[in-house]
Amino acid sequence: MSSTSTVPSRVNGQAGPQNPALVVRGSDNLGELKVKKICCIGAGYVGGPTCAVIANKNPSIAVTVVDLNANRIAAWQSDNLPIYEPNLFETVTVPRDGIKGSREPNLFFTTDVDKAIADADIIFLSVNTPTKVAGQGAGLALDIGYLEAATRTIARCATSDKIIVEKSTVPCRTAESLRDILAANGKPGVRFDVLSNPEFLAEGTTISDLLYPDRILIGSLMDVHGQRAAAALASVYAAWVPRARIITMNLWSSELSKISANALLAQRISSINALSAVCEATGANVSEIAYAVGLDKRIGPHMLKSSVGFGGSCFKKDVLGLVYLSESLHLPEVAAYWKAVVDINEWQKDRFTRRVISSLYNTLMNKRIAVFGFAYKKNTGDTRESAAISVVNHLVAERAKSFVARRMRADCQINHAESNPANANHVHRQKPARSAKTKKNMHVAKTSRNPTLKHNLPSAVMVAAT
Q: Where is the UDP-glucose/GDP-mannose dehydrogenase dimerisation domain (predicted)?
């Protein structure tokens, strides 16, 4: 990272008590930081697409995505990308492969973590932070073990000043821990500035969300070094994001904003699902209720579609993380409030299964049931925390013969979920656990060539029985 004498302009719009402007003037030896190389640790659902868009929009910046999983890196280097997202393939291949005569490649995927860290000016941390499965906070707290390991690797490999950016969803004040680790383990004379830059991506619309974000949050310490680092990161996003949407704040507000956003979105889903039970008992129509209340400009229509329940890798994990934070802060009423959001979601999945059983004369023995859709939402192959998993497990427990149909795009996700014991958020971790008998009764069909199913899969669960 090189310095110039140019004084950067404001990163934000108007200054204010809640929105302090970033004006970086600094001392004589503190100029604007010019970003030439970016490294992202973690080649998953966030790291890969995010870096592809950054590389697309910043052809003069070399962007390197690193991961210890050689198979995943090989997939990113091939035409068979490890995840499916609309428009992802084109977004990756242009900066990765270049355009003959007009653009050199500037997006790279590698397992050489040490070199990528040593060369980078900015390092994104985009590793998994799952719910802890053992020890203090098990079942609630976010596990930042992978994040700590990545931070220690950075401290070991860095020989020049680095800007470290939290992309992973983390507990509030995690940046403080990262700064302590870097200070204790880094080489003498190497400076580390830690920023929070949470992602607000929805699977199925990831590329659109990256290209047209509602906001870009950058949290930093409010000293001159922190503001200078934030300005450098803001300059990367400013290549395509309007400056008014690049919002700066303190580190802790930025970290907590991500978990708060997911908690509020999950709350809306649980709220409409709870109302759906009232509608069924009274003869009201939940779709009409959602339409009516959504017309209120204070409420709006988004996230008000009743369903089997929310899934995916984020909502449940982040809400439970907020529950644990509230408990740690001795706020039991707040913890109970957010815990109810998850409880309603689990109850809704169970209620759906009970309705299926009731409609089939209270017995599923040897009945063939087709479940259309295995991913947790449409336009993605991600099966993590999918409501379909819970439904299938319960149906098979009732001795039904389940038939799962889904698009071929989800093949790698289902196979990975059934075969990888290290993945804490996939099928085998769901309760009740699937036995050999369960697997025997569950059949998977590829439906990519069936035009009647094209617009329904993968999606929330639909069930048909014979």
A: 252-346
